[in-house]
Amino acid sequence: MPLRIGVAGLRRGMGFVRVFSHHRECELAAVCDVEPGRAQSVAEEFGAPMHFEDYSDLCRADIDAIVVATPAPLHVAHSLEAMSEGKHVLSEVPAAWDLDEAEQLARGVERSGLKYMFAENMCYFAYIETYDQMVKRGDIGKPIYAEGEYIHDCRSLMHDRFDGVTPGSETGVTWRASLPPIHYCTHDLGPILEILDTRVVSATGMHTGSNVEPQWGAIDMEIGVFKCESGAVVKILVGFSIARQPSMHWMVIYGTEGYLEGPRGGTGGKHMLYTERTANLQGPMELPLSSAHTGAPPEATAGGHGTSEYFMCNDFVRCIVEDTQPKIDVYRGLDYSAPGICAHLSAENGGAPVEVPDFRPTQ
């Protein structure tokens, strides 16, 4: 019998709609969005037998799992409600809005006995998986420092539009204007923590304040500097109300014997490796990598972001069907998310370091 999947939040959630409508072990059974008429339209287009405008109705529906792709301030409340109704959860990023919510989420997942997987698609990019293999193989020696940047001008999403939090036609600022940029560090910090095989123990943050769009109070850019349990240091920069086109991700990882560096999005760069373990190199080697996996089935591109979302959703299905641990479970999702929360607390307190909690249960 196929897994019956419901998708909540039909903006970001449309990628999941496309993936699960093609998945051979799943049925796209229900869709949900608070914007009037949107869920019905998507259900008709993709053949979903149920559609809802009320999230609680979706949670009570006869389905097995819910993709929480609703706005970030609702992720914890919606994940906990779904699990309280016996539904497995695949949650979009970030995992939580603040540290209290992070604690509630961890304990709620434990009580439920259900599967919770954190949907950090960057961990599934093909080039990230190759970086991970190369670093763990020792190609650059011991990894000791990394940087990541995610710059995406989202000002058009910050005002005078339906914001997905409340029904009706919205005016004024949306939840995105109040999102501290470093809260959304997971797209770079998550992959880096996987590659370095560690977690963050201390966070220091700074931000620029609101200069570009002060009428909305949106922070232009925010930085987090993170000390890891392994001793490595990581720096992440995020900006959503800054004048830059096109949007970009960038990452570099330094080891004791070399480095891996990715391209700056949209600027024609290359993936590069330099390693002292290869004799006579006069500079870095170009790596023919992309976000897409070689040999992936045709339907793997349906969700967008290369082939990452296909493989991420498939891992979610596998952990339910085979009753195994999710690849990115609630604790790892909070390892990716909580440092950004702590970095913003630090920035608001003059850059004083903030200890990052470990939400795993104490022994």
What does this entry show, briefly?
29% of the residues lie in helices and 22% in strands. The chain is of the alpha/beta class.
Features:
single chain; 363 residues; alpha/beta; Rossmann fold; Dihydrodipicolinate Reductase, domain 2; 2 domains; 9-stranded mixed beta sheet; 6-stranded parallel beta sheet; 10 helices
Structure description:
- This protein has 363 residues and is α/β, with parallel strands linked by helices.
- It has two domains: 3-121 and 312-329, NAD(P)-binding Rossmann-like Domain (Rossmann fold, 3-Layer(aba) Sandwich); 123-295 and 332-355, Dihydrodipicolinate Reductase, domain 2 (2-Layer Sandwich).
- The chain has helices at 14-22, 38-46, 55-60, 75-84, 99-112, 126-137, 175-178, 186-196, 308-321, 330-347; strands at 3-8, 26-32, 50-52, 65-68, 88-91, 116-118, 143-151, 200-207, 221-228, 233-239, 248-255, 258-261, 271-275, 285-287, 354-355.
- The strands form two sheets. The protein has a nine-stranded mixed sheet, with helices on one face. Strands 3-2-1-4-5-6 form a six-stranded parallel sheet, with helices on both faces.
- Helix 4 (75-84) links the parallel strand 4 and strand 5.
- Helix 5 (99-112) runs antiparallel to helix 10, helix 6 (126-137) packs parallel to helix 8 and helix 8 (186-196) crosses helix 10 (330-347).
